[in-house]
Amino acid sequence: MLLKAALLNVELLLSLLAVGFVVGTIVAVLQVYGGRVLGVLAFVFEWVFRSIPPLVLLFLVYFGPERFGLSISRFLSATIALGLCSSGYQSQIFRGAIQSISSGQMMAARALGMSRTRAIASVILPQALRLSIPGWSNEFSGVMKDTTLAYVVGYNELLRSARAIMDRHYDAAMLSFLTVAIIFLVLTYTGNRALGWLEERTRIPGLQVAGWSEEGHS
Amino acid sequence: MNMPLLKVEDIHKRYGNEEVLRGVSFEVNRGETKVFIGPSGTGKSTLLRCVNQLTPPDKGQVFLEGTEVTHHKSDINRLRASIGFVFQDFNLFAHLTAMQNVSIGPTKVTRMHKEQAQARALAELERVGLGDKANAYPAQLSGGQQQRVSIARALAMDPKLILFDEPTSALDPELIGEVLEVMIELAREGMTMLCVTHEMGFARSVANEIIFMEHGVIVEQGPPQQMFTNPKHQRTGEFLRKISELYGETER
Ligand SMILES: Nc1ncnc2c1ncn2[C@@H]1O[C@H](COP(=O)(O)OP(=O)(O)O)[C@@H](O)[C@H]1O
Ligand SMILES: [Mg+2]
């Protein structure tokens, strides 16, 4: 039962990471290249979603539409609320990475005749996203844990299932919460390993990594 | 009709309080090589960037084959695609192989088919003597090799002219020769080139004209022979003597 619930956490995790990734990338690009108006809007966006506690946002998104007679599924409300929260953090990671890329890269792309959008898509982002993997890995762990917040809107994720077990068999409570903890340990470990592998796979040959040199001497 | 390939008219550019370019005009005919020299901070790089609008000038016009590049309605991306630019610090795309660096322009800008673009890229890499480095990443290449890849990247776009901004200044002395060799070959094949460089051996062997700039204006311009032996301005002679001492004058 808990393992089945864990799948729901993973499902939520993947969809909110996707929302956070897409929105976060767009926000970061606008912050750096969006010019005055769009740039300011992007900063406001980041500020809003990094300031509002995820739980508050979750309540707003889940119960807000109800006021107008609309209903929103638990899964969708959690994806939107937690996804936007994450997009705030992810945009910060991506913005740092974009800004660390030498301005000569953009200049060379423009000199070839690429439009700004084309240059961002073909030259800037492929490099910036590679650089973002370590920071993103961190955000991944945080968001992993945040999936349990969907508990409060009645999404049948891990914590809620553990709670249900406790209600029925009080003796098993500790055991089930411990199991939940262990499942999170395993999920986070697996995710971080996968990201580590991705980082290795997409490493640009010849570029030095801090603290390590290919020749093996310092 | 005898229209110059490139016509630059009365370019002005100001950064804050500093007027970096104060009215620069010159013309380049097809197949010519012009060499710009002048003290650092004089506005040579700014001038080259004004030609392809990487830096838009405050005033003045640039015409490429009669088309006004500086016009606010010009299709600047298309015009840039026909003006090669070689940077002092190469600026190769770090995440792409040499081959991909050269083929990205044809595929993403001029929409050439992938196989065709790759064949073209390989041909250009061979032209600069790097056919065997097609799969190397920039960080795996020496400075001289990187600069040659960046020349190949410019060539793959079939440029009408190429702008070189101190292409050998970031290189270790022993790597300068291989880049100059490629540039000399290009000039002899009839490529139109504007080069900011203090390599006077290069200027002597291929430049049609040397243009001496100082404080944002052209002080003097003329064929190398005249500039070296009989400059009109005292400053020109002084500067040429100084860089000849600094960089040596041997033909490479
Ligand atoms: N993007 C910029 N912003 C502010 N000042 C600049 C910028 N680019 C160049 N300058 C200034 O313009 C002057 C000319 O620079 P530059 O064109 O690079 O000269 P050169 O290539 O002849 O050495 C310098 O004083 C430089 O500090
Ligand atoms: Mg310069």
Written description of the protein model:
The complex is a heterodimer of chains A (218) and B (252). With 218 residues, chain A is an all-alpha fold. In chain A, 78% of the residues lie in helices and 0% in strands. Chain A has one domain (2-213): MetI-like fold, CATH 1.10.3720. Chain A is flat. The termini of chain A are far apart. Residues 212-218 of chain A have low confidence and may be disordered. In chain B, helix 4 packs across helix 5. Chain B has two domains: 1-82 and 161-252, 3-Layer(aba) Sandwich (Rossmann fold), CATH 3.40.50.300; 93-158, no CATH class. The model of chain B has no long low-confidence stretch (mean pLDDT 94). Chain B is of the alpha/beta class and 252 residues long. In chain B, strand 9 (209-214) and strand 10 (217-222) form a beta hairpin. The longest helix of chain B is centred in the last third of the chain and has 16 residues, at 173-188. Helix content of chain B is 38%, strand content 23%. Chain B contains nine helices and ten strands. Chain B has helices at 44-51, 76-81, 98-109, 114-127, 143-155, 173-188, 200-206, 224-229, 234-247; strands spanning 6-15, 18-28, 33-37, 59-64, 67-68, 83-86, 161-165, 193-196, 209-214, 217-222. Chain A binds chain B through residues 102, 104-105, 107-115, 118, 122-123, 126-127, 130, 204-208, and chain B through 52, 54, 77-85, 87, 89, 91-95, 104-105, 108-110, 136-141, 150, 153, 157. The complex binds adenosine-5'-diphosphate and magnesium ion (MG). Adenosine-5'-diphosphate (ADP) binds next to strand 2 and helix 1 of chain B.
